[in-house]
Structure formats: structure tokens, C-alpha cells
Amino acid sequence: MATTADIRNGLCIEHNGDLWTVVEFQHVKPGKGPAFVRTKLKNVKTGKVLANTFTSGFKINIQRIENRGYQYLYNDGDIYHFMNNEDYEQTFINENLISAPQLLKEGENVTIGFHAENDTAIYCDMPTYVILEVTYTEPGEKGNTATNALKEATVETGAKVRVPLFINTGDKIKIDTRNGAYSERVKG
């Protein structure tokens, strides 16, 4: 069993019955009273961030997470099918484990985290940016660039994204998967 002395960034621990990763930590030794460790923990499944303080020497239960590369194949309702990039085995995970399922296009490479103890998928991380083609948007007005006006565009996965007025149907755009926002237009 590990203690608070083993805490480091990126460590996955079991806390209150859930899996949490350590986002940041700080060992504090006040002039009066016992030392403690101030942490920020991120829930592996929900992404919720929690500030928590452990007294020095507190026993923690370290959990092992294995990240494996997978390629997205297709979805069947809420079930998404992926293929392992190394041994070509297929796995199926639920839509709620994927960080941005509306931006997932066939052939996209993702990282799926598995809890090593029982080999179950606990999250699916997409790349930070994806490049998608705009399938429909209203035509932009020439010369209307004085303001930061945005319009709605539909991309090839069916997701709706707010884009600048100069984006047209057929353009390829880079989208941030963390918040689903337009980043830039891709040339060529």
C-alpha cells in the first residue's frame, strides 16, 4: 500500500470508490501542526476536478491504467466499435466513455484507457484536434469581416460547429475536441 509520499502528477488512485488521476499536488509543512498534501484530482470517468487534502502518511490505493491505441470503425447506436492498432482485435465501448463522440470520424485514431485489474475500458481520448470537411453552411457575405460574427456549419460527422463567415461548404476545418470549437481553416 502506498502513502502520500508516492503521489505524483498523472498517478491514478482509488478514492471514495472511484478512479481519480492526480492533476497537481503540493506537499505542505506548516509551522504548527502535521504536514499534509494538497491535491487536485480529476475523475477518470466524468472528468470532474476535485480539490482534496490528505494528511501526511495517509495510505492511498494506486491503480494501474493501460493506454492502448485504437482505430474507430463504426457505431451501432450507443455502442462504438474500435480496432486495436497492434493485434487487430476489436473492442466495443459505450458512447458516454468517449470525450467527443460527435466529432469522431471513421478511421480516426484514439487512445482507450483500460483499468488493468479487470481489463475494462474506462475512457476514450480523442486527438486534441480533428480535421473535418464542412458539408453544409450558409454562404458567407463578401467583405463582411469587420466583426467576429459566427454562423453554424455542419461537418461530415453530422456535428454542428460555429465557424467564421468566410467558411464555405467543402472547406476543411480544424476543430478542438476538448470544447468542440472551430480552430482554423485547413488549406489544401
CATH class of the largest domain: Mainly Beta
Q: How many DSSP-defined strands?
A: 16
| Percent helix | under 10%
Might you state the CATH topology name of the largest domain? SH3 type barrels
Characterize the main sheet: 6 strands, antiparallel
Using the alpha-carbon principal axes, give the shape.
Answer: flat
Keywords:
188 residues, mainly beta, SH3 type barrels, OB fold (Dihydrolipoamide Acetyltransferase, E2P), 3 domains, 6-stranded antiparallel beta sheet
How would you describe this protein?
The protein is mostly beta strands and 188 residues long. The protein folds into 3 domains: 61 residues, Roll (SH3 type barrels), CATH 2.30.30; 61 residues, Nucleic acid-binding proteins (OB fold (Dihydrolipoamide Acetyltransferase, E2P), Beta Barrel), CATH 2.40.50.140; 58 residues, OB fold (Dihydrolipoamide Acetyltransferase, E2P) (Beta Barrel), CATH 2.40.50. Helices cover 0% and strands 55% of the residues.
Write a brief structural summary:
It contains no helices and 16 strands.
Please write out the topology.
Layout: E1 2-3, E2 12-15, E3 18-28, E4 36-43, E5 49-55, E6 59-62, E7 65-76, E8 79-84, E9 90-94, E10 109-115, E11 120-125, E12 129-137, E13 150-155, E14 160-164, E15 172-176, E16 181-186
